[in-house]
Specification:
It contains four helices and seven strands. The chain has 191 residues and is an alpha+beta fold. It has a single domain, classed as Thiol Ester Dehydrase, Chain A, CATH 3.10.129. It starts with 13 loop residues before the first strand and ends in a 13-residue tail after the last strand.
Amino acid sequence: MTDRSDRGVPNEGETTVSEGETTASDDDTTTSTDDTIYFEDVEPGTVTQCGSTTVSREEIIEFAEEYDPLDIHTDLEAAAESPYGDVIASGYHTLSLSVRLLVDAARGDRAVIAGLGIDDVRWHAPVRPGDTLAVEFEILETRPSESNPAAGIIHESITVRNGDDETVLTLENSELVERREPADEGEGGGE
């Protein structure tokens, strides 16, 4: 069985106690081969660490040359004369790296139907060559969809920190996620 506790979901036979803590259940007779994470499996207050990645100067320049070709990201000489003294990662590069870690840690198994939006994206500090970025997310809210009884809405906050534990990026994200069983008529909830 796959360990799902680090993806914001209790393992089979465990229940969420508070903010990600789990405890063994008395009824451990359930066996499931389905590792899909449905709307009902996601608990508000759960915090998940998604791992980390280190960003190289070459990756910063390569991403920026393709997607955000400002001198501060691509030109070593111009960047050396900037307040940063070196190239810094495009904010969109940082955002893309965080999404990859989120998918690997949790969303890859989540029954996502669609992304509904990203809000309050804030870049707090530059990402420099050699920085190791760690990503965590917290489930802020879950609610049934009003318009789609087969789905629910998950609202989460995402924080990216560098190796000095300095926050470099924050955002909030909402997703439409499949329910294990569609809601009864009149039981809907959100979008």
